[in-house]
Amino acid sequence: MSIVLMILAGIVVLSLLVILTGSLVFRGKISREVNRLMSAEESSLPGVIRADKLNGLPEPVKRYLKYAGVVDKRELLRLRISQKGEIRTDRDQRWMPFRAEQFVSTTKPGFLWRANTFPILVRDMFDGKKGSMRINLLGLRNLAIAETREIDQGSLMRYLGEMVWYPTAFLSDKITWHPMDENSAMAVIKAGNTTAEGVFHFNAFGQVEMFTAKRYREIHGHFELDKWMAQMEEYRDAEGFMIPFKGTVSWKLPEGDLDYFRFELTAYHRIS
Could you tell me which CATH number the domain at 2-40+48-266 has? Predict the structure, then answer.
């Protein structure tokens, strides 16, 4: 019996070592991607945003930027954000908790989001030109790798909608603004050969309450363009800027809304 137990213990230890090695290899690849994303460009020194920089923007965007506190602040070029939350892919699926870390470069523009919802590891990114999604099991095997024009659009649109976490990016020359009404404005962003657009909805205080767009959703191996919405709440001060710390992301489907992502920021650090 002791020999059997020793063999079983050896198998368990070996399995744990394989899992640990796979996880380290996967995380190592992601770390190299982070380094490439966050590498400083020679000309990327944060400038100070003066009030006249807001001239020409739609009125609700001006109101938001004043609320967010960008005037007389240095541009946000690179930052790191930590999150926790819940995620699911279907309304009949149980919510799965996750913890994530996100790196952002507004000079690219781009981001890398790495999340752990055991036993699944997820990496979503836009590198300044193209998007990429990778889903991995314990660092051992890729369950999915998605690198298509639909992913490019979705990843860039995610960057656009998440500018509420790096509000000085609203002033980027890569973005064209189109006024809609007193409480909403459309933004069009172009990076590389990819273009994405969406509508920011503002309240009377100047906060962005909602971001809406059309985004590609994968259904049984093909993509459909559906209505998509991100709701933001609980604005707090972070590094001198007012940003939303909580939110819910949903698909607006004919059969009803599908909430699939709930988040809360747990840390916010400016790098440059």
Answer: 2.50.20
Residues 243 and 236: beta-carbon distance below 8 Å: yes
Q: Rounded to whole angstroms, how far apart are CA atoms 109 and 189?
A: 10
Task: Confirm whether pTM is higher than 0.70.
Answer: yes
pLDDT tens for 211-233 read: 999 999 888 778 989 999 999 99
Band of the pLDDT at 10, cuts 50, 70, 90? low
Report the distance separating Cα 121 and Cα 4, nearest Å: 33
Q: Which residue has the tokens 């020409």?
A: 56
| Rounded Cα gap, residues 211 and 247, in angstroms | 11
What residue segments make up the domains of the chain, in order of their start? 2-40+48-266
3-class secondary structure, 248: strand
Phi, psi of 37 (to 5 degrees): -65, -40
3-state helix, strand, coil in the chain (%, to 5): 25, 50, 25
Q: Which residue has the tokens 């966050």?
A: 38
Distance CA 115, CA 201 (A): 28
Tell me the one-letter amino acid at 22.
G
Nearest Cα to 176, choosing from 164, 188, 185, 163?
188
Spatial separation of the C-alpha atoms in residues 65 and 53, rounded to whole Å? 11
Question: Is residue 244 reached through a cis peptide bond, with omega within 30 degrees of 0 on the bond before it?
Answer: no
CB atoms within 10 A of CB 175: 18
DSSP-derived letter for residue 239 is T
**Which residue is listed with tokens 């799965």?**
96
Amino acid identity, position 222: H
CA distance 16 to 238: 39
